[in-house]
Amino acid sequence: MLGKLTGFDDTIVAVATAPGLGAIAVIRLSGSQAFPICNALFPGKDLLQQASHTLHFGSLVHNGHVIDEVVVSLYKGPRSYTGEDVIEISCHGSPYIQQQIIEATIAAGARLAKPGEFTQRAFLNGKLDLTQAESVADLIASNSAASHQTAMQQMRGGFSKELHALREQLITFSALIELELDFSQEDVEFADRTRLYELVTNAATTIRHLIDSFRMGNVIKNGVNTAIVGKPNAGKSTLLNTLLNENRAIVSDIAGTTRDTIEEVLNIDGILFRLIDTAGIRDSVDTIETIGVQKTMEKIREAGVVVYLFDVNELSADDIRQQIQSFEADNINFLLVGNKTDVTGEAATRAKFDGFPILFISAKNHEHIQDLKDKLVQKVMAGDINTEDTIITNARHHSALQEVQQSLIDVKNGMDNSLPGDLLALDIRRALHYLGEITGEVTNEDRLDYIFSKFCIGK
Questions:
Q1: Is 433 helix (H, G, I), strand (E, B) or coil?
Q2: What is the CA radius of gyration of the chain?
Q3: Beta bridge partner(s), residue 339
Q4: Cα separation of 459 and 452, whole Å?
Q5: Mean pLDDT, rounded, of the chain
Q6: Cβ partners under 8 Å of residue 78, min gap 6
Q7: What is the pTM for the complete model shown?
Q8: Cα angle 430, 434, 436; round to 5
Q9: Which residues of 290-303 are buried (b: 16+ CB within 10 A; e: fewer)?
Q10: How far is 160 from 174, CA to CA, in rounded Å?
Q11: Strands 12-15 and 305-311, how do they pair?
Q12: Where are the beta strands (DSSP E) in 312-368?
C-alpha cells in the first residue's frame, strides 16, 4: 500500500529554518535527484562521489553567478530523515539568498515541498509511524517543558510500542478464532477463551488509562484558559500583575477600571495558564462597562478554570455561599480566592469564612501567591505530571481509542453471552482497525494529506 501511495519520482525542496533574518538558514532537498540537482550547482566538488553523512564547504553557483558560500550536508537513503537521498544546504540567513537557492534548485529539477511533506515521506518510507510523525509537529510547537517532554516521548515511540504490542496479541487471537471457523463442523477451539478474556480485560484497562490521559495531555499541549473574575475593585488586576511580576494591568482604587479583558500567559510547573483579567461583575448604566461585563461572562463559560477573587472585607459568608451554588449549577471549575487579608488580618478572615474552601491571599503584599499557583495546577491536573508515562495529546488518537474501547467491551460482552466465534472475530477486527488507524497501518491518502497539511513547510 505504501508504494502505491508514495510514487516519489520527484525531488522536493524547502527552507527548513524559520522565516526571516538570521545568521544561518537551512534549505532541505529530498528525493532521488537531490544529489544530482545540488551537484549541478556545486562546482567545487563532485558530490556524487562523496560518502554519506559528510559536510562539504564551497560556493553555490547558478547561471555563472555565485549565490553564496555554503556548507552542504549529505545523507544517502535510507539513512536519512525521509528514507530518501537528502541534502541540507546551510547558507547565510538573508531571505534573498534563500530565495535564490530555492529558485536555482527548482530550475535544476526540484519542486517546492508541500507543508509536512518531508515528514510524510518519512512515514510512507517506514522511518516513522503515524503517531511518531504527528509528534514531530507537537515537538516543533512545544512551548513548555511538559509539552516538549510529552512530544519527545511519543516521537521515540513510547505510545506506538504499547499499541503495537496490544495489536499483535489481538491479531494472534483473531487468527485463531477465524481458523476455528474453517473447522466449524468439528467443534474445536484453537483460541483459549480464558486467555482471550484476560487479554481483552487488560487491554480495556490500558485503553481506558490512555483515554483518561487526554485531559492531562490537552492541558499540557494547549494550556488552560484561566479567567480571573469577581466584583469591581476586588484586586483582579493587582493579582494579574503579581502573578506575572510586572505591571501589565492598570491598578486603581476606582471601581470598574478594567473595561475589557487582558490576556497573558503564565508557565506554572510546565503548564501554560492563559490568564484573563476580566471586567468586574456588577450592574452598570455605563454602556462600555456593560459590554465589558458581557465579555466577562463569555470568558467564564470558555474557561478551563475560573479564579473567583473577592474582597474579604466586602463580601459575607452568605455571598460566597450563593456564588458557590451559582458556579456548581453551571458546572464551572472554580477556585475561591479571598483577597486583601492584610486589612483585617488573616486569622479574623478565616473565622469569618470558616467552612468554605477558600484560599486567602494578599495580592498587594504577595502573600500566599505560590499557594495559589499550586492550587491552579491541582485544579487542572488529575495528579502529578509524569511525562514519562504515555499521555494522549492528539484528538484523532483520542477518538480512535474510544472506538477501540467500545470494540473491546463488545468482545467481553460477547464472550459473557457465549457468542459464536465469527461475531467475536468481527469485534476484534474492528478494534484492530482503529488501532491501525492511530499508527497508520490502516489509512488512506486523503487522511494523510489532511494530517500532514497542518505541518510547517520544510518539515
A1: helix
A2: 29
A3: 311
A4: 9
A5: 81
A6: 84, 125, 127
A7: 0.59
A8: 115
A9: eebbebbeebbeeb
A10: 20
A11: unpaired
A12: 334-339, 358-360
